[in-house]
Amino acid sequence: MSAPASARVVALCGGVGGAKLALGLYRVLGPDALTVIVNTGDDFEHLGLHVSPDLDTVLYTLAGRADRERGWGRADESWNFMSALAELGGEDWFRLGDRDLALHVLRTRWLRQGKPLSGFMAEAARRLGVRALILPMSDDPVRTMIDTAGGVLPFQRYFVECRCEPAVRGIFFEGATMARAAGEAIAALHSPQTEAIVICPSNPYLSIDPILALSDLHTALQAAPAPIVAVSPIIGGQAVKGPTAKIMAELGIEASSAAIAAHYDGLMDGLLIDENDSTDAPTIDLAVEVAPTLMLDLADREALARRVLGFARRLATSKPTQRRAIA
Amino acid sequence: MSAPASARVVALCGGVGGAKLALGLYRVLGPDALTVIVNTGDDFEHLGLHVSPDLDTVLYTLAGRADRERGWGRADESWNFMSALAELGGEDWFRLGDRDLALHVLRTRWLRQGKPLSGFMAEAARRLGVRALILPMSDDPVRTMIDTAGGVLPFQRYFVECRCEPAVRGIFFEGATMARAAGEAIAALHSPQTEAIVICPSNPYLSIDPILALSDLHTALQAAPAPIVAVSPIIGGQAVKGPTAKIMAELGIEASSAAIAAHYDGLMDGLLIDENDSTDAPTIDLAVEVAPTLMLDLADREALARRVLGFARRLATSKPTQRRAIA
């Protein structure tokens, strides 16, 4: 499955929060119009299986198979594997559902055969009837590592096993220097048919930065002809879910949309911030759109997607922005 | 876990039928008295996971976790992994239950770390509270291959996918020449503390022959000081379950206990046959015990175990048999 000729929007995202907007975009745009470049810095080998948490969240979300209550994994999930595993003394700090396991088992075999992760995700998406291109940011391994007071932790150890409790001193992306971005990701960013590039409201430090750490992808973003719009994950000085605000505090950064703007400085043409943070707007030296960003239901996701696309469309017709002037 | 000093009985077996008698022996003998040497010729890699059907049947049976209705796999099993797998286009001809998967996933990781299968089974048995030594016949790979009119099939393709339908022309055990038997199996066979060696009523061609194909184990059996008793899997010219009688017909062998006696000729001291086949007894040039061998419930399993042990005890006190004269 190659990038469809009609692909019009590229989204960059991590897991849960970003996937919500990706779903909104997918529903608003219709089939064969969306390419999602997904963080794989959270990927890890667990029990000998290759687990790709963000890719799977995006896949399940777009396929309508994500669990809405839990916020991760599949709907109608059962946990008999986990209980048998615990009985046998296996590591049970990372929960793998019975249905979810099918994806991990098939992917692990695929990768052991020397085939690329991107090919597996394309096939899985096809099987689940998803007509968006879900791309791992890279087919090469990149691993997000968290430097904490208690030492360096691989992402899932920090995120799941330690529940984000250790204070973060720094974050780095093992392998990012050597990794090449997925070819289809670069092609979609360069494509004149791409009308908008959306940085979803995922955690900038944990979910978007690993993608930006790929130098060829970073370069392609800077040179991309389409407007780049980011959606701030901050609502009223808080992150909706996950440790974004906590990490910002630990890194000495104020949890504000202005700080998000500074973080993505030079990479985007516009920032969409929540209506609760509208007072941040004047402090941001960039095109700003103010809109409700909390996505509780499907209608919220679609409404935000429409706002983002409208914002990007307006930016495309306005004068060149600072980013494009630089690029 | 090494062979306990008090080990008194060694059983050779395959899956379902053999495991029933192994359970009877385990219950009659009590903890730390039984060593079961299990066929691994049926082992295979499926979906990248190492599956050991016979070992797992014995483990689940002795642990009281086997499904009695289905005849294989775990009790209280669910099949959500399989349904998700099918949805993703994965191979679903071999069914893996959600609970059962835990054993395969943990074992696969263990083996990939270069550790022996025997060590994994000892650990799994300990975790499930089984106080018998469940030994793979070998830590080296041996693969049962079925030569059929339609070509050579790996065992599980023949047994499960093709439902034993292709006519069998021959059976061979890939890797058996190079494989070494599990050290603890050889030690148990040689041990003067072993009071009886029981060949369970498993399929002689598919389940016991792979074990006997290991030359060091075959030699150890011939030299074993304890009496060797086989239980015929034939009841009234039929096998209780599985393709034994069909295969015998295809190989031009009459499905009778006399044929079983001929098959194990020179390897055993006595054969226990079903009461429905008592007319075979005079034609067998060997000590024969006639008893009900159909094991429908736990009481049947224990009763047969007692008959087998009593038979062996009598053989031990009688004059040396032909086998021991040869050895």
What attributes characterize this protein structure?
homodimer, 327 residues, alpha/beta, Rossmann fold, 40% helix, globular
How would you characterize the overall build of this protein?
The structure is a homodimer of 327-residue chains. Chain A has 327 residues and is α/β, with parallel strands linked by helices. Chain A has a single domain (9-66, 116-150, 153-161, 170-326), classed as CofD-like domains (Rossmann fold, 3-Layer(aba) Sandwich), CATH 3.40.50. Chain A has 13 helices and 14 strands. The first copy, chain A, has helices spanning 16-29, 53-62, 80-87, 98-112, 117-127, 155-161, 183-190, 204-212, 215-223, 244-250, 257-263, 298-317, 322-326, and strands spanning 9-13, 34-38, 44-46, 49-51, 133-136, 143-148, 151-154, 168-174, 196-199, 228-231, 234-235, 238-239, 270-274, 287-291. In chain A, strands 5-2-1-9-10-13-14 form a 7-stranded parallel sheet, with helices on both faces. In chain A, strand 6 and strand 7 form a beta hairpin. The first copy, chain A, is globular and about 60 Å long. The two termini of chain A are 30 Å apart. Chains A and B meet through helix 3, helix 4 and helix 5 of A and helix 3, helix 4 and helix 5 of B.
* Biggest interface, residues from each chain: A-B, 33 and 33 residues
First-residue to last-residue Cα separation of chain A: 30 Å
How much β-strand is present in the residues of chain A?
15-25%
What is the count of distinct domains of chain A? 1
- Rough shape of chain A? globular
CATH 2nd-level architecture of chain A: 3-Layer(aba) Sandwich
Total E-strand runs of chain A: 14
In the CATH scheme, the class of chain A would be Alpha Beta
- The helix count of chain A comes to 13
Order of helices and strands of chain A: EHEEEHHHHEEEHEHEHHEEEHHEEHH
The average pLDDT score of chain A comes to: 92
Strand order of the largest sheet of chain A: 5-2-1-9-10-13-14
> What would you give as the CATH superfamily of chain A?
CofD-like domains
**CATH topology value of chain A:** Rossmann fold
Largest sheet geometry of chain A: 7 strands, parallel
Unreliable residue runs of chain A: 1-7
Alpha-carbon Rg of chain A, integer: 19 Å
Structural class of chain A: alpha/beta
Q: From the structure provided, what is the oligomeric state, counting identical versus distinct chains? A: homodimer
Helix content of chain A: 25-40%
